[in-house]
Amino acid sequence: FKANHPSHSPLPSSPPLFFKSHIMKSEEEKKKGGWSLSHVVSLIVLLFAVYYYLPFPFQTNDSSGNKFQLLELFANDTMNFKISTTPLPISSASVILKAILSKDRNGIPKELNHLYGMDTVSVQSVRDYLNEKRFQKLKNQLCQASQIQFCKEIVNNADPEFGLTPLHLAYQHGDKKTVSFLESIGANKEAIDIVGRKPLNMSFQNFVYNSKKWAKKSNRNCDIPVVEVKSESDFKEIRRLIGEGEPVLMRGVLPHLMDGVQLSEMNITELVDKFGDSSVTMGPVPYSDVFNLPHKVTTLKDYYIHHVLNKNNFPSYIFQKNDLVTKNGLLTLGDLVSKAFPSPELICPVEYGDTGSDSIHFFLGAKDSGAPFHIHADAANLVVKGSKRWLIYPPIQALYSGKHIVKWINEDFEKIPIDERPLECIQGAGDVIYIPFDWSHAILNLEDQTFGYALELLNRREVMWSLPRFFRTCQSNMEGNE
Questions:
Q1: Phi-psi map region of 325: left, alpha, beta (phi>0 left; psi -120 to 50 alpha)
Q2: Between the chain's N and C termini, which has fewer beta carbons within 10 Å?
Q3: CA–CA separation, 196 vs 441, rounded Å?
């Protein structure tokens, strides 16, 4: 961090001469022992030298302070790299939501105990709790009366790479108090990031309204942006949409990717015959065991015969890691990321660190199986066989649920006012859907034997690796740098 801070001069190769002269002891002083006036002077000079020559964080009360501290406040309180089903981080809100849905009282803050036992939770209700904690830290510590002038000076400092300001992040989190406070000390509501987004755009409310309107006008079965992939020249539009943080359906992209034609010709029966002895965990939702829901560990062959070919009214689903089963999917989706995503500047390649083989799942399910609303890192979802119905919310409208998707649709969907319902999209075989970080989504399999792959991805903008204190490129881990 010190080396990247623009206000820091490099340390001198040796102490100044006056410093050397004061720290040298005479032979007479050494014999006397104890503290002499020379010792006291030496100590004072030493402390002065440390203060003068060492950069931030030792100097924090003047204009050379940390000019990115408001942005860092969001970074510190947003991500959790430890509690995840992949090596990729999940949001702090997601950690608490998992505790609520799994009925883990120890993981639920006392302020949110009223959510215990619920099967579907508004993500914003948890985010509001986190927002309040952040706001108190902002107002009473970072920008208290003695620091308010410095906060006014840095309130519009954007992150060096992506151009996001503290006000952008406050809107993104639905943090009304922080929005009001930042604007009161001079935050610029017209500031734009490198892809042209103003702070208000980070709520994605206009995006949702316009996307639904355009889909209806075009009479298409997908509310999110759709790119019909006819050739690799269409990847440019995909790259733009992902760069703007929007979900996108890549229609018919599979034949244009490495081993895509081979994958499209896959036979599910042959797949089951080949990997039938592999262990899988089946349940009403992915990772049912994590949420303390009914689940069963069985083999892929047993699941296929008894729960895909012979299903009940609420079919079980498997969403599973397996290096052998996912090998081809990882190769194909990795090719997509390298060709069509803003990588490595925004989205890290699949070969980055522990991502890749430990961040990809295969899924298989009968018609009416699927996944309820949930949130996680950026993800690319490829359907190889079958089709899916997607329900998608931007972060400030997000839901998290442990209810079987058919039950949620039957019991909850119709109760939602029409203008508050999620974006919808039908994904067919050969299509890929990209879902940004913390966009809530649920899926319903529309055909028996729906099969494909889901790959989670690391987004440098979301983990704020562009800030000097946290700076890392997507190459850092592969090169062994920290």
A1: alpha
A2: C
A3: 26
Q: Can you tell me the distance from the alpha carbon of 174 to that of 170, in angstroms, rounded to the nearest whole number?
A: 6
Tens of pLDDT along the chain (482 residues) come to 233 333 333 333 333 332 333 333 344 444 445 556 666 556 654 554 444 334 333 333 333 368 999 999 988 766 665 555 666 888 999 999 999 999 999 999 999 999 999 999 999 999 999 999 999 999 999 999 999 999 999 999 999 999 999 999 999 999 999 999 999 999 999 999 999 999 999 999 999 999 999 999 999 999 999 999 999 999 999 999 999 999 999 999 999 999 999 999 999 999 999 999 999 999 999 999 989 999 999 999 999 999 999 888 899 999 999 999 999 999 999 999 999 999 999 999 987 666 667 899 999 999 999 999 999 999 999 999 999 999 999 999 999 999 999 999 999 999 999 999 999 999 999 999 999 999 999 999 999 999 999 999 999 999 899 999 888 888 755 443 33
Q: Bridge partners of 432?
A: 250, 382
The answer to whether residues 243 and 346 touch, using CB atoms and an 8 Å cutoff, is yes
The C-alpha atoms of residue 5 and residue 471 are separated, in whole angstroms, by 11
Q: How far apart are CA 365 and CA 409, in angstroms?
A: 18
Residue 279 structure tokens: 């262990």
Instruction: Spell out the alpha helix ranges (H) of 79-122.
Output: 92-101
- Residues 2, 21: Cα–Cα separation, whole Å: 28
Which of 324, 247, 321, 312 minimizes the C-alpha distance to 286?
321
Amino acid at 63: S
